[in-house]
Backbone:
């Protein structure tokens, strides 16, 4: 087995019984995971349920102000209630990946 | 050549893709049960899109474009990537009992069949003045562009090796309806369909008749498998099985468009034979559900759900160990083991 690699985090907050916008935002982030092999990890959280994993500091700091759906790239909010342009999110992913893994949120 | 076994050469004229896969699976089941002869089947198709058994059509196909054109989308019974088919391409499948064939040809495993058949395809291309190369794992390329792809599936003691050769397919339409993950080609420096596939006719610089190329390749495949070919039709028992599989499996949306379970974490990596995407849901550090998607190659697709069922309830390290020791091909099992470790919760919710 090859050694696990450190991955930069994507997080998406969706409603319970995801709406069409929720599904679109998750699909956009899933596509990014497939396009950046060995670099990204996507966690999807549901409103009203405690996240099953440790959230990033950026996600936690945005608590209470987040709209649904929302998305975060390495703890930086990139979507807040609306579906952003995919190229904008991809650009943010590229910028954050370009930083050293030490700059990636746990 | 009395020492060569005789296979049925089947040219049944089934062009509708969902019925085609019913034929494929019926033959495979029959070969496994000993009621069907070992068979080389050749066919051409109505325009359609096929996705691999582990793929999600919504991820790899532009379903809106398919609807607009009226293209049916069907999920295959074997692994691999999404493909577009039309009358300008043709397919073959060799269905046989695996162990006797490996022993007779002196092959160590089914992976070696990819190469021997790929060489037969390259020989067919050479007949038209085109230099082709076998590109591991399962492709043949012309100047780096794919002209032929193949897949394998195991069904009990039976095994099918199938392939598609592009002769004069509508590549513009192919580009419109396929939307493969960029991950698949990320390490090859190109993305667009037109940049990575090519028709044999284009490379030969003249129009070619797919039926003529198909006939030539059939002879070469007979040599590759070292069999005699005897043209025969379907058996009544196969016809019955085809009707049932067409009606109850390949025509149903439940098969072609499976609903993915709700997962919470997604990671992906590229194995040697294709992309592996792992979706998981963890509770209290234990894996609750896992789903694997992608275009990677596994001879027996049933091994994947069997493995996933064994992983439930285990922590990441234990699950990775189980995956690592599984009977999947080495590249897939090691990638899956690593993905399990990487998808595990990074920390407690607190």
Residues:
């Amino acid at each position: 087995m090859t050694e696990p690699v450190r991955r930069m985090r994507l997080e998406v907050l969706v409603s319970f019984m995801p709406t069409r916008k929720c599904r679109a935002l998750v699909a956009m982030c899933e596509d990014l995971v497939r396009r950046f092999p060995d670099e990204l990890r996507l966690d999807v959280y549901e409103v009203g349920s405690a996240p099953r994993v440790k959230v990033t500091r950026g996600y936690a700091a945005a608590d209470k102000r987040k709209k649904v759906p929302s998305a975060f790239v390495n703890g930086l909010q990139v979507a807040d209630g609306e579906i952003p342009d995919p190229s904008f999110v991809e650009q943010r992913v590229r910028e954050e990946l370009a930083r050293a893994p030490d700059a990636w949120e746990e | 050549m009395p020492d060569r076994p005789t296979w049925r050469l089947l040219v049944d004229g089934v062009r509708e893709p969902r019925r085609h896969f019913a034929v494929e699976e019926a033959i495979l089941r029959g070969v496994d049960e000993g009621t069907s002869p070992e068979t080389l089947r050749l066919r051409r198709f109505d325009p359609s899109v096929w996705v691999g058994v582990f793929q999600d059509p919504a991820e790899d196909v532009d379903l809106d474009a398919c609807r607009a054109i009226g293209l049916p989308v069907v999920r295959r019974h074997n692994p691999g990537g999404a493909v577009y088919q039309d009358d300008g391409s043709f397919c073959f499948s060799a269905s046989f009992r695996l162990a006797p064939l490996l022993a007779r040809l002196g092959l160590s495993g089914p992976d070696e069949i990819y190469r021997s058949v790929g060489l037969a395809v390259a020989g067919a291309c050479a007949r038209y003045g085109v230099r082709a190369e076998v590109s591991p794992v399962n492709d043949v390329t012309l100047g780096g562009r794919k002209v032929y792809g193949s897949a394998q599936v195991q069904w009990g003691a039976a095994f099918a090796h199938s392939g598609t050769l592009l002769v004069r397919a509508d590549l513009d339409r192919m580009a419109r309806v396929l939307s493969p993950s960029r991950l698949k080609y990320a390490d090859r420096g190109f993305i667009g369909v037109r940049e990575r596939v090519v028709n044999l006719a284009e490379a030969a610089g003249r129009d070619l008749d797919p039926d003529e190329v198909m006939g030539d390749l059939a002879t070469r495949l007979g040599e590759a498998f070292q069999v005699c070919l005897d043209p025969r039709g379907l058996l009544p028992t196969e016809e019955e099985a085809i009707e049932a599989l067409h009606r109850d499996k390949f025509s149903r949306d439940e098969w072609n468009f499976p609903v993915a379970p709700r997962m919470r974490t997604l990671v992906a990596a590229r194995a040697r034979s294709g992309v592996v995407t792992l979706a998981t849901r963890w509770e209290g550090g234990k894996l609750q559900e896992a789903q694997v998607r992608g275009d990677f190659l596994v001879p027996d697709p049933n091994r994947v759900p069997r493995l996933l069922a064994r992983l439930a309830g285990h922590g990441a390290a234990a699950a990775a160990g189980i995956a690592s020791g599984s009977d999947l091909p080495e590249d897939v099992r090691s990638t899956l083991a690593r993905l399990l470790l990487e998808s595990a919760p990074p920390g407690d919710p607190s």
User: Anything to note?
Assistant: Chain B touches chain A at residues 58-59, 181-183, 186, 263-270, 275, 277, 281-283, 320, 324, 334-335, 337-338, 341-343, 345-350 (CB under 8 Å). Confidence is low (pLDDT under 50) at residues 182-190 of chain B.
